[in-house]
Write a structure and sequence with these properties.
There is one protein chain. By secondary structure, the chain is an alpha+beta fold. A five-stranded antiparallel β-sheet has the order 2-1-5-4-3, sandwiched between helices. A hairpin with a 5-residue loop joins strand 4 and strand 5.
Length: about 625
Amino acid sequence: MTPDSASTFDSRVPGDIHWEQTFDACYDAIWVLDAEQRVLRCNKASCELFGKRPEEMLGRHCWEVVHNTAAPIPECPFERMFSTRHREEMELCLAGRWYHVTVDPIYGADGDFHGAVHILRDITDQKRKDEELRQLNEGLDARVRRRTAKLAETEKKYRDLVERTLDIPCRIDEQGTILYIGPQIRRYGFDPDDVIGRDFLELVHAEDKSRIAEDFQKTMASGDEFPSVFRVQLPDGNVRWFEEEGTLLRGRSEAPAQINTFLRDVTDRKNAQYREQAVLQRLRAFETAVNQGSAVIFRWKIGPGEWNVDMVTDNVRQFGYDAEQLLSGDVSWPGITHPEDVPRLEKEVAGFLQSRVKEFEQQYRLIAKGGEIRWIRDRNTFITDEDGNPTHILGIIMDVTDQRRTEEALRESESQRKAVLEGMPAVSYSARIDERSTTLFISPQSEELIGFTPEEYAANPDVWLQQLHPEDRDRVLAEVAQCHESGEPFVSEYRMKRKDGQIVWFRDAAVISDNATDNSRVLHGVMVDVTERKKDEEVRRRQQEKIRRLSAMLTTAQDEEQRRIATGLHDDVAQLLVACHIKLGIAEAEEEKSELHRIHHEIGMLLREAGEKLRSPSFELSSSTLRRLG
């Protein structure tokens, strides 16, 4: 190679002033060859490998330096690289050592081939280890063959033992085909001969197929064990849960060959898990409901002088305290209980323990964090050990402050109502909804108004029915029955016979309501004494009757007087006028053409007019009865 050609090649090969330092730092022998396989560059390792100086190798063909031949060897990687135009490699033994040879093509900026990078890496130690490993593998193969022979001898014994277990042995190949399955599968309605040769996924429930297929592929790829739980639909339509624990068996190529597994029926366990999950869900829902509600659940440890809290729900914060404060002891239960109530509570608990009751209830005051006093109702149950000795108290506490205030207000209201009722001139009562309206309660005014005390009513609930006036009983009982049936208010006025025999009038008004004690229906009413009003009504009725009779008598006298006057006018005066008129008519006929005739005619007209005028007062003065009759 001439200096000019070397200069031309240098311009095409990447490099800089640090080329020698960079390549001399490599342990592998590196050459840069031109297109005719002549050495253009060599590093320090290549000089040491071949025992030559750089000038003894530069410009020479590589086969001359390496093989000391006149031409490339038949398996020369450069020759093959020249044809394929990509890396070629081979293993080469020189002077008793083995080398891995790689040849990579070099291309210029114009894309033309200009040479190659030739690298020799010493792999003698690796080859030695490979040989040792090969010999070791051969020894292992021999041991495996001997072991396999022994396993073959015990396979029948092992299979007999496995087939007697409850678990179902199964062997699956890489494609998921069942190679073997134990006779235990018959317990589930399958014939082993029909199952062998089928795809394992055919046994898996449709909803679990994709998950099991994915698990199987992961196991085959990673070599990890194949644990899985899935459902199998049996020939009779039932579904059973199975747990599978598979182990990979690898061949000499290290590739997974098959999976040996056992199928274990875990249906009962899964059902128990479902039940447990359902219970846990209910417990979580209960916990959520409790924490969102007002009832606080506590558990106290029983000990002399101890009120140690070892469980409390988070909603204790409604009193201003955190559960952690009570659990850690930073806040004690006696410390937040009203001091006046603590001795009583301790004494009551001691009594409950001694009497061996299972449940008990207490009420006391609790001091909230802000200092507010809250009333608490505490319903407790003793928790015992195996010997029946109480160890803890489980309690549910409720804030009943508002209820206490309401009860106090109700007591005050009841007291006021009682005072008002007892001050009224009326009897309040409660009666059962039955045919006799049996009295359940009656106010003290019953003694004053009816003559019977409340105690006498209590001794004889039928007093009301017995003292009801006979003339009013049927009507009043019918009205009571109508009230019971329809539920409408009862309002009636009736008479009762007092204990002393005196008749008393009452206005009775009542409504039906539900009895909070036993959910029965009760009639609540008020009986007001209206005797004086009834007497006044009777007096007014009699006065009105007397006025009506006097008015009738006056009307009769007036009619008689009018009839007398009308008769006098009609029978006396009117008839005389008519007679005069008739006589004048006769006279007119005889003196038709004389002056006297005219005068007589005028007198006749006046008499007729007088008669007509008398007719009207005679009619008006006649009896109204006669006018109605025409």
